[in-house]
Amino acid sequence: MRKFITLIVVIASVQLTKAQDLETILLASEDASLLTQNYLNPAMVGLMYSMNGGWATTAKVHKKFGFDITIGVNASFVPDAAKTFAFNPADYPFLSVASGQNKLPTVMSEDDTEATIDVSIPNGDGTSRVISFDMPGGITEDLPVNAVPAPTVQIGFGLPFKTDIKARFVPTQNYDDVEAKLLGFGLQHDLTQYLGPLDKLPLSVSVLGAFTSMSVTYAMSDTNNSDNVFVTNGEAEFKMNTWTVQALASLDFKLITFYGSLGYNNGKTTAKMKGDYTLTYDVEDSNGNQMGTVQEEISDPINLNFEANGMRATLGTRLNLGFFKIFGDYTFQKYNTATVGIALSFR
Description:
mainly beta, two-stranded antiparallel ribbon, 59% strand, elongated
């Protein structure tokens, strides 16, 4: 069986969510949504934290009509506690784990062991629809770090009144069966100008607000992707909105900048599985005797919501080589995030 979900962010121009065998989880019947939610949660949460990173590497804004082009990557580290999820049989009326495990790997686990899930759905006449499928393990076994990346390409432009406008834009990109696009805006306003004599010091203070929206769709081909699921017009759709507000401070010297921020993150994601699906079940009686097969037709079966929010604090350093900048910072939050990158900045 191929990987259930592979979440990869395409460097510089597109963020990609590629799904494989996503439809197999539908065999979990009415428990499919909860099982999918628990399995995908750390990847979705990590991506939301990553998307809110890298908006500023100094509290100092551009002079009017100054601008910068920044290329960076944010990587949110998945906590150990989020690498597995508890499988509580009481939460899943129709499911059981054949091996009796009470914890299963999430998509961001290093454990790629597939667990066999048994589904038994009473028909109300003494028979049950019975099916088994393999719940996949994690996808990060071969990665150098267990983190959810989010590369960024950003432009900043100096406006009047000591304000910068920032933009992240990726036009619609297509990669195999995946289509993705991203749009983000930010505003950073200088507060040092209101602090009297302090504006003569290398200290800068500002406030930042930013919003990012991303959408990714994965088209499933009309095919019998497993022995038990037939897909027609199948599509997995992810839509993500994140925003952040931050107070920033920096010490700006000719060769080096030290910067930090304190703020708040918020993110919401919807994940939907659309299309028509034909599920095929073996039928057994109460004694386990085979009684043939049945088929079930379902449409648009999955609609999930993920959220990530909380305080954030960042510390970072930037090396200033004329208009060429090299920066790195670390953000302390629920999923701690490292950011590195380069920038071309013209005051």
